Amino acid sequence: MEGKQIVIVEDEPASKLAMEKALKKKNYNVISFEDSLKAYEYIKTNASFIDLVITDFRMPGMNGLELIKKINELQFDISVILVTAFGSIESAVEAMKLGADDYLAKPIDMFELRKRVEKIINNKSLKREVDNLKQRIDKFYSFSNIIGKSSSMQKLFEKVLTVAPTDVTVLITGESGTGKELIANAIHQNSPRKNNIFLPINCAAIPGEILESELFGHEKGAFTGAVSQKMGKFELASNGTLFLDEIGEMSLDLQAKLLRIIEQKEFMRVGGSKLIKVKTRIIAATNQNLEELVKSGKFREDLYFRLKVVHLKIPPLRERKGDIPLLVNHFLKKFGETHNKPGISISPEALKILEHYPWPGNVRELQNLIESMVIFANEEIIKPSHLPDELIEKSSYKTEISRNPLPENGDSVIINLGKPLEEIEKLVILKTLRKFNGNKTHTAKALGIGLRTLHRKLKEYGEE
Fold this sequence. Notes:
Blueprint: E1 5-9, H1 13-24, E2 29-33, H2 36-45, E3 50-56, H3 64-73, E4 79-84, H4 89-98, E5 102-105, H5 110-141, H6 151-163, E6 170-173, H7 180-189, E7 198-202, H8 208-216, H9 233-236, E8 241-245, H10 252-264, E9 266-267, E10 276-277, E11 281-286, H11 290-295, H12 301-307, E12 310-313, H13 324-338, E13 345-346, H14 348-355, H15 362-376, E14 381-382, H16 389-394, H17 397-401, H18 421-435, H19 440-447, H20 451-460
Helix pairs in contact: 1-5, 2-3, 3-4, 13-15, 18-19, 19-20
């Protein structure tokens, strides 16, 4: 509570002193005035540092209601408690209309005063935390945070901007790790619903019998363990957005109920008989081929067509390789700041390897790799030798490297005749290893030997 500034405006010295002492006992930073005009001048000058003003109603110069009006005109987040004579309900009502947060009647109960002040201060602190969190979430999920300059991603961005202001149902498809939830949240954040909840639920992670209760809620006694009534996700997300991830895993029974909600905007809780109306926007996503599921009878055709009113397909990372440098630099900056390694970068050679890797796990795999690289990096530049061997083996860039197995232009190996073959072998292996910055996969490929053989040789040389 220390540091919260409260201004008391009270022309009766005894009352002013009593309130000041009561609040200072709770470590509030209190400043008090008997003159309302002087108090207003102080408030106007220090508005950004003041949390609460406690003002009497009847005062010479400027009464409490006039002071409240003046404070509101400053347009700062300053709460107000009006102190009024017992029975003056009219003035209290007028004060609340003008924006006062609370009122107290004289004679003031100091315990009640502290209680009211604490409630207001705590609410303000909570509001600040919520606002800060929302700003961070908005920043993280804002449209500008989705990285991609490729034509396929630019077309996707255009569709997102077009569909976001509407209430239409959206189906997002794409391989695992492409960022389907990120796109869904970007739609929400750019819609009129952005100040309401965005609620994701993974249909594949919850058993069918539990998923029904999670989505629609249940009445008390609906099944064993239903000891009280529970609201489902559709109710909780009313006026907001419900993101149904892995929709292809939903049972046919639940699909029928979902179809009713989309068409009628109503449903019943499990064990209930009352229809509940909702205004929830639905965004669904899957990494499966729903058309094939429809053909095999595992997904309702009518639901499929209702879901794909707008269909957004996210391309896999291997089809937009031009975005890889952007993503790499974005993640290097992000995790460099997170793990206190600012300024960390990647060598052109290492970046080429990443650009020629197929990325089966898509953007999520790339993100996880870069974070791991940053955490374990002991140099400012990530080099090929820092990359995992299995990634290098699957990168097509290694074939370009292996065309010149040994260094040239002054970096060649000088061999004196008469040297034992073992020494020549060692010299060539170690020279090649240095050429490839210690990367064993590239070294083995260049020398035409297996990776296990190279490890064994290096162990013999005392290099492992």
